[in-house]
């Protein structure tokens, strides 16, 4: 059960945009969670908004106080301390509601999907175009963070979706990005 949280707030920087800083911070967090095999820390973005589409300037970590203390004692923020202000670990407000914060994946590029199908199935461009019509392409309207895959080295957009507000928490684990489609975080 998540009882505590800590806010990491981006410091203004005239040379680096907030989305770029958030991506770098989130990559560092992901690496630390993978390295230390942490599945009990969830993340949220308190300034999350669909209009305008943004994750905001704050990353909130949720978990047990001891786990958050151990994570923050690690050196994963090295090199980012000039750009990030870490708050103190605090109790979650008793009146908080709960929700899931999850990764959302979209089929965003029809041409890429067709090329992939041609490689995998040995089809011609015409066959792939018939199998994958232009209507499958979706233009996501969710906020995202731009990060680099540790396995392939390729940059990608990690789209973030929010589940509905719930009155009761749902316990469980989070992935190495601190996200889950079933386990909730306190939302306040």
From TrEMBL:
Natural source organism: Vulcaniibacterium thermophilum
Domain of life per record: Bacteria
Molecular function GO labels: endonuclease activity
Lineage: Bacteria, Pseudomonadati, Pseudomonadota, Gammaproteobacteria, Lysobacterales
Example GO BP: maintenance of CRISPR repeat elements
Gene3D superfamilies listed in its UniProt record: CRISPR-associated endoribonuclease Cas6/Csy4
NCBIfam families per the UniProt record, alphabetical: cas_Csy4
Pfam family name, one: Cas_Csy4
Record protein name field: Type I-F CRISPR-associated endoribonuclease Cas6/Csy4
InterPro entries: CRISPR-assoc_prot_Csy4 (IPR013396), CRISPR-Cas6/Csy4_sf (IPR042564)
């Amino acid at each position: 059960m998540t009882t505590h949280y800590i806010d990491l707030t981006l410091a203004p920087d005239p040379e680096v945009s907030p989305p770029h800083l958030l991506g770098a911070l989130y990559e560092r967090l992901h690496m630390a969670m993978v390295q230390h095999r942490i599945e009990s820390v969830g993340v949220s973005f308190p300034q999350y908004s669909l209009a305008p589409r943004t994750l905001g300037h704050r990353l909130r970590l949720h978990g047990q106080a001891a786990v958050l203390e151990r994570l923050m004692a690690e050196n994963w923020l090295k090199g980012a301390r000039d750009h990030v202000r870490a708050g103190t670990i605090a109790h979650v407000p008793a009146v908080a509601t709960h929700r899931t914060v999850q990764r959302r994946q979209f089929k965003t590029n029809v041409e890429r999907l067709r090329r992939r199908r041609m490689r995998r199935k040995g089809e011609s461009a015409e066959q792939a175009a018939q199998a994958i019509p232009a209507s499958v392409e979706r233009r996501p309207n969710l906020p995202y963070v731009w990060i680099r895959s540790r396995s392939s080295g390729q940059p990608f957009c990690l789209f973030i979706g929010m589940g509905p507000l719930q009155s009761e928490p749902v316990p469980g684990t989070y992935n190495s990005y601190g996200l889950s489609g079933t386990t909730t975080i306190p939302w306040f």
